[in-house]
Write a structure and sequence with these properties.
CATH superfamily of the largest domain: Nitrogenase molybdenum iron protein domain
CATH architecture of the largest domain: 3-Layer(aba) Sandwich
Bound molecules: zinc ion
Number of strands: 8
Order of helices and strands: HHEHEHEHEHHHEHEHEHEH
Shape: globular
């Protein structure tokens, strides 16, 4: 039988007990690892968490957030994460659940201290009356209501509140700084929104066509009107019959601008443009969609300046 002392020495030698070696970079080691599903959530988290966090976004802004490849490297990130933030409303249903399963990190699962559902308290648009499971089975990828709510900067402030709440739970000692960061972010958004709404005022009620139904929150905030979609239903590819209908609507409503996102094929949009004389513009559905969009406010600066230019040209 091995004595207790010998056993302790063996464990120490194996590195199980005893003083832990100091991390090489104590400052860096203290940062919380925050993983987000989208770059928009990462951008807002960075505003609130500042120097206390390191942020990694699984989906990149140039990818369709409904369809992301759940790669094993993302599971490794989630395994190490202190916090996970997602948009919710079924947006990430095809890829976040398998990633969380694979990560086996109980600290970031829904309901735990390190989990943030960014959609909490966000007023939703287009919530269908049917059963979400049935709607989903029919191919509808917005069965809980429209999940693209980060495209309204005022809803972005609610996202920031949710992220603040989560970070304050994990960093109670830094709550005051986090609170100051939150207040500064909200002040910036309010000032920017006033400017953006003024900038869009001359184009109030202008009709556009979009590829995917990503824009209801943006529309509501900035006064444009998406009158038809290239997709007959969210996630369903266009048919020739549907495109004929869209051309009719575009002619009736004199639509001169077609909005697409970097991950959609331009083919149908170009066809519609050739039949109606409209122009096709690529707007950013998320932070990171184009290299110049690094922050949450960059997203609106980019999209609104593109739209104004397109309306001006027609
Ligand atoms: Zn969608």
């Amino acid at each position: 039988m091995i004595g207790k002392g010998v056993f302790t020495i063996v464990l120490s030698l194996l590195g199980f007990i005893g003083p832990r070696p100091l991390p090489a970079h104590p400052e860096a080691a203290k940062k919380l690892l925050v993983v987000t599903s989208l770059q928009d959530l990462a951008a807002i988290a960075r505003e609130i968490g500042g120097k206390y966090i390191e942020v990694f976004s699984i989906a990149k802004g140039y990818q369709d957030p409904h369809f992301v490849d759940p790669k094993p490297s993302f599971m490794v990130k989630l395994q190490r994460a202190d916090m996970f933030i997602q948009a919710g409303l079924g947006l990430e249903i095809g890829w976040v659940p398998p990633l969380l399963d694979g990560a086996r990190n109980p600290n970031i699962l829904p309901g735990s201290r390190g989990y943030v559902d960014a959609s909490k308290n966000v007023p939703l648009l287009q919530v269908p009356t049917g059963d979400p499971a049935t709607l989903r089975a029919r191919g509808d990828i917005h069965p809980y209501g429209n999940p693209h709510y980060w495209l309204d900067p005022l809803r972005g402030k609610i996202i920031a509140d949710n992220i603040f709440e989560g970070l304050a739970r994990l960093l109670p000692g830094n709550k005051e700084t986090l609170q100051r960061n939150l207040a500064r972010f909200k002040k910036t958004i309010d000032a920017k929104v006033a400017r953006w709404v003024k900038m869009m005022a001359p184009y109030k009620g202008k009709s556009v066509v979009a590829f995917h139904n990503s824009w209801p929150y943006f529309e509501q905030r900035f006064g444009i009107k998406v009158v038809a979609f290239i997709e007959p239903k969210p996630g369903i590819p266009p048919t020739p019959k549907h495109l004929v209908k869209v051309i009719r609507i575009m002619k009736e409503r004199r639509v001169k601008v077609i909005i697409i996102s970097p991950y959609f094929s331009r083919k149908s949009a170009e066809l519609l443009a050739s039949k109606t004389g409209a122009s096709v513009i690529e707007l950013a559905p998320s932070v990171g969609a184009f290299p110049e969009i690094q922050t949450y406010t960059d997203l609106f600066d980019y999209n609104l300046s593109r739209l104004v230019k397109a309306f001006h040209g027609n």
